[in-house]
Write a structure and sequence with these properties.
The complex is a heterodimer of chains A (270) and B (116). Chain A is α/β, with parallel strands linked by helices and 270 residues long. Chain A has a domain at 4-60. Helix content of chain A is 43%, strand content 20%. Chain A is built from ten helices and eight strands. Chain A has helices spanning 4-16, 21-38, 42-46, 49-61, 113-120, 152-161, 167-180, 196-209, 226-241, 265-269; strands at residues 73-84, 87-98, 101-106, 128-133, 137-140, 214-218, 245-249, 261-264. A five-stranded parallel sheet of chain A has the order 5-6-7-3-8, with helices on both faces. In chain A, a hairpin with a 2-residue loop joins strand 1 (73-84) and strand 2 (87-98). Chain A is globular. The relative contact order of chain A is 0.16. The two termini of chain B are 19 Å apart. Chain B has a single domain, classed as Winged helix-like DNA-binding domain superfamily/Winged helix DNA-binding domain (Arc Repressor Mutant, subunit A), CATH 1.10.10. In chain B, strand 2 and strand 3 form a beta hairpin. With 116 residues, chain B is α+β, with helices and mostly antiparallel strands. Chain B has four helices and three strands. In chain B, helix 1 (4-28) crosses helix 2 (33-45) and helix 1 packs across helix 4. A three-stranded antiparallel sheet of chain B has the order 1-3-2. Helices cover 67% and strands 12% of the residues of chain B. The chains are: A alpha/beta (270), B alpha+beta (116). Chain B: Residues 22-93 form the Transcription regulator PadR N-terminal domain. Chain B: InterPro entries: Metal_resp_DNA-bind_regulator, Tscrpt_reg_PadR_N, WH-like_DNA-bd_sf, WH_DNA-bd_sf. Chain B: It holds the Pfam family PadR.
């Protein structure tokens, strides 16, 4: 049984999980030694590479650390209430997010997740309640803020210009962020011709490029494959470590143990 | 041969106790991954796949319960040996006692319930 193809896949998945090269080498060497001793099929002994890589990463990381320092309050939403006609969408919702925290907003379809995010972004007004933002804010809406007839680099330049970055600096920074999301070949394709998943990455890069203090993301993984999804969370954890306050609207529950705050609007409104 | 349901239940038990079983083995003597797997199976815990065992070893290493060293075999390949630390022995003594108390309670319950 030649285990090398499996080991190569494992190494890639471990890097994707954010392990440093020496750690990757150690883990791969352990598995190789075990397979040599046991003469087993790697899929039988260790399962699928991505699942084993995730188990290893969890063992090395430990449970989500509660000791992480958090900073000052960046976003505070108090008593947010919103109706559309006779339909009550949000009732007295409260959310406080500090620098260095990720809040996940979850709940059934139509329970007001996007409405809450739009209120936090200042795009719509609540019927009651206040939102206070300390610092700069960036909002990545669900249906994209991309321009179909511009190149990705032009999007980076446009957003960067708002922060006084030169075209070159914007492009370099934008492409670096794109690379973190596994989007390598940022080339001569107009935004309108990108796949849905890649356009969503463009959307994400634009919202993080300006280094906002508060980042609002509305289901930021639409069209992502599993690899891109892992990359996204790696990037969010890095941004959190950099002291950003992040709010993610999501219906994916499997990452909830990695966030700091969970706001379930299904409960909050019932 | 265990059914899938039995196997699933057994895996859930192992999740809570495998680290202590590994520490108990290492308290006797240092060992390497494959050998530990074999010893656990011989001890009656069923086949422990590498995919289950090595994450536990990594966790024990991270928490300082074991240390590792590579040793050249006699003519064979080099192997990574795991050795229990003082912290590992403390953990084994403390958490092992907790488990024995818990297992005794379970046994009493099952017994009173007209178990096996």
């Amino acid at each position: 049984m030649n285990a090398e193809p499996w080991l190569a896949l494992l190494a890639g998945e471990l890097r994707r999980q954010g392990l440093a090269d020496p750690q990757v080498a150690t883990v791969v060497a352990d598995v190789r030694a075990h397979l040599r001793d046991s003469a087993e099929d790697p899929y039988r002994a260790f399962g699928a590479p991505e699942r084993y890589a995730a188990a290893v990463a969890e063992s090395l990381r430990g449970p989500a650390s509660h000791a992480r320092p958090v900073g000052p309050v960046r976003l505070q939403a108090d008593g947010i209430t919103k109706r559309y006609g006779r339909r009550q969408v949000l009732r007295d919702v409260n959310l406080t997010v500090r620098a260095g925290q990720i809040a996940a907003v979850v709940g059934a379809n139509g329970c007001g997740k996007s409405t809450l995010l739009n209120i936090c972004a200042g795009l719509i007004s609540p019927d009651a309640g206040t939102v206070t933002v300390h610092g700069t804010l960036s909002h990545s809406p669900q249906d994209g803020g991309t321009a179909p007839y511009l190149l990705p680099d032009e999007h980076f330049a446009l957003v960067g210009a708002g922060k006084g970055l030169t075209r070159d600096r914007s492009r370099t920074a934008g492409r670096a962020r794109a690379g973190e999301l596994g989007w390598q070949d940022v080339g001569a394709t107009l935004a309108g011709q990108l796949s849905g998943g890649t356009r969503q990455k463009l959307n994400l890069v634009m919202s993080t490029l300006t280094e906002p203090d508060v980042l609002l993301l509305d289901e930021p993984y639409q069209g992502f494959d599993r690899g891109a999804y892992v990359n996204l969370w790696q990037q969010l954890w890095r941004l959190r470590d950099d002291g950003k306050a992040i709010v993610v609207v999501t219906h994916m529950l499997n990452e909830l143990d990695q966030v700091d705050i969970v706001l379930d609007l299904t409960e909050a409104n019932s | 041969m265990l059914s899938a349901v039995d196997l699933d239940r057994r895996n859930q038990w192992l999740r809570g106790i495998l680290d202590l079983c590994v520490l108990a083995l290492l308290a006797r003597d240092e060992s390497y991954g494959y050998e530990l797997g074999q010893a656990l199976e011989r001890a009656g815990l069923g086949a422990i796949q590498g995919g289950t065992l090595y994450p536990v070893l990594l966790r024990l290493q991270r928490t300082g319960c074991v240390t590792t060293r590579w040793q050249e075999g006699d003519g064979g390949p080099a192997r990574k040996y795991y050795r229990i630390t003082d912290a590992g022995r403390d953990c084994l003594a403390r958490d092992g006692e907790d488990w024995l108390g818990f297992a005794a309670s379970v046994a009493k319950l099952l017994d009173e319930g007209g178990g096996p």
